[in-house]
Amino acid sequence: MKAEIITIGDELLNGQVVDTNSAWMAQHLAPLNIRVVQITSISDKKEAIEEALEAASQRAQIVLVTGGLGPTNDDVTKETIATYFDSPIIRDEEVLRHVERLFAKFGFADMPPINQKQADVLADADVLFNDVGTAPGMWIERDGCVFVFMPGVPFEMKYLMRERVLPRFAAFSAREITHNAYILTVGIGESHLARQIADIEDNLPDYIRLAYLPKIGLVRLRLTASGTDGALLERETATFVDQITARLEGHIVGHDARDFEEIIVEKFTEAGVTLATAESCTGGAVSASITAIPGASQMFNGAAVTYANSAKRNVLAVAEETLMQFGAVSEQTVMEMAQGAKRVFQTDYAIATSGVAGPSGGTAEKPVGMVCVAVIGRYGREVTTFQFTNDRKINIERTVAMSLNMLWNLFSKEVKMT
Amino acid sequence: MKAEIITIGDELLNGQVVDTNSAWMAQHLAPLNIRVVQITSISDKKEAIEEALEAASQRAQIVLVTGGLGPTNDDVTKETIATYFDSPIIRDEEVLRHVERLFAKFGFADMPPINQKQADVLADADVLFNDVGTAPGMWIERDGCVFVFMPGVPFEMKYLMRERVLPRFAAFSAREITHNAYILTVGIGESHLARQIADIEDNLPDYIRLAYLPKIGLVRLRLTASGTDGALLERETATFVDQITARLEGHIVGHDARDFEEIIVEKFTEAGVTLATAESCTGGAVSASITAIPGASQMFNGAAVTYANSAKRNVLAVAEETLMQFGAVSEQTVMEMAQGAKRVFQTDYAIATSGVAGPSGGTAEKPVGMVCVAVIGRYGREVTTFQFTNDRKINIERTVAMSLNMLWNLFSKEVKMT
């Protein structure tokens, strides 16, 4: 079934707030086989609301609307939809008592009268009682289309979706089943990848779609199959996943929707091996990306961000001569940094980075964007010099991605050895 | 002037990716007096793209489109817009050479032929050269409406906006002058702040708008004045900035659009003082936020991410007894970590963090979300225990913000002493 999401409110349009509600809703609709086909953010204005409702209901069978239900004057949603659905507005007594109780609970002796308006609902709508806030939701059906109105406050919207809306959608018979499968690849560009599996992609049946979801240094492939026979869809998808996996040998990190860092934390923990980093140009960004994952403490011992040369010597015991002869940005120095991190933090694996992140500080010999990365494992080691761009943030992001790639390659090789 | 944003791609509709691009664009259009009136996320399908372009161009004078420009098969945008604008597709030789150079730089001997398509552009469009990626942007004008097409990868979109698109829009709005002034505040919540300056806000003339742009731990105020007399606008705005600044004494960090970290790097560099961090629960995120700023090497010596207790002892010389008696998450331990970082990295200031980031690992005494932060300066020191949420990412972000706030407060006090 197709759904559309309409979010109402200027805070999204002026960039003050990032719309996280829509992604959450889409994620929770997918398991019910409800596919979001458009998300529209509009202003709190009569014409905009009418136009969006009209257009959405022509493309989808479900229209979810958030925001615009506050009591202040700039929220015209309720009056607009009363006209749009040609329904009178009535005051819901149960909601009114609930709103008054909430105000009392938060220590207001008298409720400002404007808040009585929170209990106003469309007579033609089913009220979706909101235990966690003052604005109730509304469910109204017209010409085969379901319209759901909810407050924009994320936890109120989530409460109403979980308790009132999703259960009703679940009751709609799910004739069409959707099955997703993922393949996470590293170290191969989107277009190279596309060329390598072009024949497999050409052979995909109509009911299986392939999407490329690239990030820096990674490409996630998603196969989405839809139909009526769940077991068949799963079997068919698995066949293509196997074909693609075999074709891309050496580039496969995982087969689920998780992030690369999550897979690294899991696989290192399973293997009982530990990691440390020694970072110059990345300034702790490699460490921060790993430690953002719950459970990282099982396999991550620590990091030394050695920005100053004195720190490279004192903390990691990089030799004075190495720094003098080859410089801070050199394969020799990153290798000694990685050795230092492995020793200081007593780990099995270490990553080290050093580079000219930019935008200034480059020389003819070592231009902005030049980055050296070393990884050391239990048995082997690798060191590479990259030449990136002149944008500091991008250089740091790319270095993080490439160093995790190098770590993964070394780790995969060594796992096979043991 | 009115603008609309159209984002193309299934990853937004299925909830896999949260759309942060649109908020960024809206924020950067506002200072040019360009107001976003609708944001539409659609699927990579011919009819959806055509319908969205048509509707947007009827409501706005500027239509910004992101996504759908990759070389693989699921990107139909380019062909659709060629038909929509009735423009032939041509291969841009300059872009082609750039794409080939990028592939060579990243170590690919041969570029997959599919990538030649990246150099295909509409003959009727101005090419927006993309130095940081393979997909160029396009600028095309039709019937008084400007359409801009950009890749959806955030850093490529931001690069094109900053370097190619915003400067052209700035030339547009030359008739009406817009003047922006900023006030960056720390340590005061949005609603408290609004209450404190309510009377000043009420007295603002019609042609000056006040926006609250909150981040975790910070609120940036933006005053936007528009009119025809630039000198008058600047003078009037300055009066209100002075009033607000006086009212919020003790909470003001700066008066420009820069990030808090940029101001810290600048002020520390000017004062000739240096910083190091010792991080446990933040895992390098404090260090990464500082070193993301160009020129950070002038004032940042390094960081020790001491995740394991052994690292706290070996690298930072935290006493065994302290860890035994008070535990890793304690005011005593973070204070010794800060002292250790100050000594090891030979700096004037040090920040230390330790906490239970979650989602698991809490105890009755030390629940998930409990975080200790210490800062030491040239003369003073501060230590605080916070109780945050049970969301790991939010806890890390909050800890970064609060530790920078504590650093700034101590630094400001000490600057006045010298």
From TrEMBL, chains A, B:
Belongs to the CinA family. CDD domains: cinA. This is CinA-like protein. InterPro entries: CinA, CinA-like_C, CinA_C, CinA_KH, Competence-induced_CinA, MoaB/Mog-like_dom_sf, MoaB/Mog_dom. Coiled coil: none annotated.
